[in-house]
Structures
1.
Amino acid sequence: MIVIEAFQWIAENQSAFFSAFDRHLLMCFISLGIALVIALPLGFKVARSPRAAFAAINIAGGLRTIPSLAILAAAMPILGIGLWPSVIALIVLAVPPLLLNTVIGIREIDTSVLDAATGMGMGKRDILWQIELPLAVPSIIAGIRTSAIQVIGGAALASFIGGGGLGDFINAGIALMNMPRLLVGALPIAMLAIFAEIFFGWLERRLTNRR
Amino acid sequence: MKWLPRHLDTVGEALLQHLYLVIVSVGIALVISLVVGIWSARRPKTFTTVVIVTGVLFAIPSLALFALFIPVLGIGAAPAITGLALYSLMILIRNIGLGFQSIPADVMEAAHGMGYGAFRRLWEVELPIAMPYIVGGVRIATVTVIGIATVAAYINAGGLGAIIFQGIDQRFPEKIIVGGLLTAALALSADYLLSMLEKRLRQRSGRSGK
């Protein structure tokens, strides 16, 4: 069984496996984190102005049609090869779904709720922190879920531009036609994505039900 | 822009290969998911399971999914089409199921009362009502698969992704940009065409929908 051979390879090459695994996770966390820092404030700023929201939704929608492979590949001539070009490309992948879901989450808040808050004498800052943010959170989590999956898959492609990570094993496996090696990369990537999907799906449902 | 004007035939061929991969895989998936979708839509518990399982499978990154097929199917078009069909299957089953669940119960009863058998009811009543949902699913699946098919070039399936990979190997930015933008243009036009079709079907079935 090649799956068993794959596990044997991992057991014998633990340091190589875990450094690639850590690199994969590191790429995902850094890019998701930076994407959140960009997309959330931008989403809140843009959501209340119909024109800006329209522009943001269309630009983000257009960016999403560019295949992730092309975005990663395009980072190479501009930024060179290695970890950082990959991280920046992954940020470009992660921002659109986050921005879309933030804007949608805020726009779907009932205006009467906001009127009530203003009527109670809440200032802009209070409304943002106490009303808008909590009500938009389920939609934002849905955005994080989509972004996380995009980024985990994109990080698998980062190997093509020298970003390292678990994609290296898939690359080596195909180059050497070594099936166990291929699985050393493919299985953990698939498992990471499935874990992210289940975890954020659960979180999303929990936060939606509380309302 | 020096490479593109001199290699229009290469690019055209890649575009056709790309379309072939997308149409064949979405087509195969449509046939399978019509059967599974119609069958599972009537069984709420089964349908919930189907939605959860397909959602989880859909999360698997394309490179990993293609790689998982290589030990079984080798490299080339076969594993690529299998992987792409699987992605469309997950989208289509969900949409088709939702379409059939949207049919009001009294419509079904009326058809039954008029003496329609199960097959005639399916063909003349249910399918037309569910059609906008089915086309909507085909639209999402097509746009998604057009993007994912670029990665399939890595396992020798050809298409526009092959131009992007050549660009990476040769450090040739123009190829990367041409491949990427053509894929995006293909996805945007497919989205536009299918959304027009979806709109028309919704108007004809007398429901404005979302």
Note: Chain A has nine helices and no strands.
2.
Amino acid sequence: MKRAAILLCILLAAAFAPMAARASGIDFTAQPGSIDIHALYNGTSLQVEGRVPEGSQVVLRFVGSSEDVRMKEKGKALGLLWMNMNTLHFGNVPKVCLIDSSAPMKDLGLAGAKLGLEGLADNISIDPPSADRKALLPELLLLKGQEGLFRQESSAVKLGEKHDGMQAFSAVLAIPSRLSPGTYSVEVFAVKDGVVQGQSAKPVDARLIGVPALMADLAFNHGAWYGILASIIAILGGLAIGLVFQSKGAH
Amino acid sequence: MSIPVELYLPIAGNSVNIAAVFGLGGAVGLLSGIFGVGGGFLMTPLLIMMGIPPTVAAASDSNQIVGASTSGTLAHLRLGNVDVKMGFLLLIGGVLGGTVGVEIIKVLRQMGNADFLINVTYVLMLGLVGGYMFIESLQAMRKAKAPAKNEPEKHVKSGAFARFTASLPWQMDFKRSGVRMSPLLPLFLGGLVGVLSAIMGVGGGFIMVPVMVYLLRMPMHVVVGTSLFQILFTCINVTVMQSVSNHTVDFVLALILLIGSSLGAQIGAKVGKKLHGEQLKILLASLVLVVMFKILYELIARPDVLLAYVGGH
């Protein structure tokens, strides 16, 4: 009975989702709808197209699920040597956060500040609570930025034709190669006069296929066999190359 | 039509340029073949710079060292440069010492900042070993260059340490190395290196080589072959343990690295054969000193980012 009720709720949510998007005044598509991570995957492009209420600016975000991250804070010891000092736990850190907009985020007022990376940092928790948030959060954003996982730009989203009180927009979002499998979300925000007028989101699944999927299954579910196999292949590889060199030397 | 050069690594969760990884493996394998060191202290940071997470870089590197050291050991076995008996004794000592070292590092971490101690140990050890080797080899090379004096070679084997080693029980011959000593000595020294390498988080080849040269008095070419032989078994153990405990061995990454490094190790063994013992020592000493200065610089210079992931070397 309980399971049937949950199923009904999911079906209703799915049925009303497009209606909710229309109610927010935003209608968009994101292609491809899922990302296949195959052996030759090296990042991809996400084509986002849609319409927002006329006069709005568009903020586009590609966000991964949040995770807890354990890190070391570097500090100076004896006034001379840099070393890893305190252990910090950052909570609610998105795996990926790529932000693009039709106008610079700083020109979008309060909404821009809230939707940008700095706003995102406000939602991140740090343990211990005594840690210096003001100093540490920019460092975290810098580190994630260097890894290519966090990005904030205003070059990809282009505004198009106006029609019936709506304005078209399109963007090509570059998805990094450093992407782990999971569910990501493409979020579109319509911003006017520093206020979010409407928002809509669509999920994008990233999944391993082919050889990477087989490897991940073996590594994470059969670790001992994986390790033994890796060692045997390494030994055979080394022996094979050794034999090739021997035969060359013999001639 | 273009040839794909990027490959996705499912365990590392990133794609890499195959040619770059292959080249990196080849370069480090070359060093491994010449000097008999695993190369982990060079490979791991370089992989991290390529975008591989630290834990995956360290574990996958161990896997590739299995291949490189197999290839290198084979080459040195053919040349008669592996003292199997000595290698096994050092290995047993190393495993026992490594177990003790892991416990020491646990205690250090509980006490506070183990990383600081590790880095200082690195700088001191590498500075001492590299500096001593460099000066000693330089002096030996100058003597060799001095005009035709042709003095008979003196064996500087006297001294307290030599008297102590001669007094140990169960003296036996190590034919390949041309030395006679008690098995207790390689067992003890292997254990000591095992403790240090566990604390420093590396294979320990670059400590073991000077130990074999200066304390066990083995000839340089046999040292290189025996060191590779020992590293092979150590890294098989690490590969399996990391796969079981942390799931951090990226098989594909290791496979590309090992093709490059096995080729490099073969070339390295041939290059090493053409070099004289003193030249080999001075080159290894330079390498050790470069690594020492790099770590020292990292200790003194302000890092780009004041945060680091937990779990790297």
Note: Chain B touches chain A through 60 residues (CB under 8 Å).
